[in-house]
Design brief:
globular, four-stranded parallel β-sheet, about 190 residues, single chain, about 40% helix, two-stranded antiparallel sheet, alpha/beta, 6 helices, Rossmann fold
Length: about 190
């Protein structure tokens, strides 16, 4: 912000100056809120939330949720064991439905990342109209998978999400061009 563009009108700052000042305060002080959404909120979204919490360097608040009435009651043992092996911790509050984040008094999200294309079709209108992206991952809890296969899939999921989220944390999410950022975050859904 340059003060040379500042104009005084009858003893007050111009609206431009006030807007720039508020924008600077918001951009420099607020954390970026990111919500990860999966069907049951027990493996994919929990692992993503843990990765972002680990990589955030204090710049992000990570949340996760699932589809109401499909959320399971506790953290899946596969997710818990995968996070433990990687040295990551699960969030204190897990396994919540998205109704917690659609209320007026809920934290305002900047980004909603959906981890299941079927859930993307059911996605509600989020308060504050956050940016949205689809990073589609297969459901690890599909019937017929044995425990060994589930652990292998969860490890691959963790590695993939960790890489994508590491890139996400290095994007200029507060100061960059919104359209370009939206494209970049959505494009991460197509990376390996």
């Amino acid at each position: 912000m340059t003060l040379s563009r500042t104009r005084f009108r009858r003893g007050r700052f111009s609206l431009w100056f006030v807007a720039e000042l508020l924008r600077g305060i918001y951009m420099n002080s607020a954390k970026v809120n990111v919500l990860f959404v999966s069907r049951r909120n027990t493996i994919r979204s929990v692992i993503a939330q843990s990765c972002l919490a680990h990589l955030s360097k204090g710049r992000f608040n990570a949340y996760s949720c699932g589809v109401p009435n499909e959320v399971l009651t506790g953290l899946n043992s596969v997710a818990s064991e995968t996070l433990d092996k990687a040295g990551l911790s699960a969030a204190q509050e897990n396994c919540v439905g998205w109704e917690k984040f659609t209320r007026n008094n809920s934290p305002r999200m900047h980004w909603v990342i959906v981890l299941d294309k079927d859930v993307k079709r059911m996605e509600p209108d989020w308060p504050g109209q956050p940016e949205s992206a689809l990073w589609d991952y297969p459901d690890i809890l599909v019937a017929g998978k044995d425990a060994e296969s589930a652990h292998v899939q969860a490890s691959k999921l963790l590695i993939s999400l960790y890489g994508r989220i590491e890139i996400l944390t290095n994007l200029p999410l507060k100061t960059g061009d919104r359209s370009a950022l939206r494209s970049d975050v959505r494009d991460l859904g197509y990376s390996g």
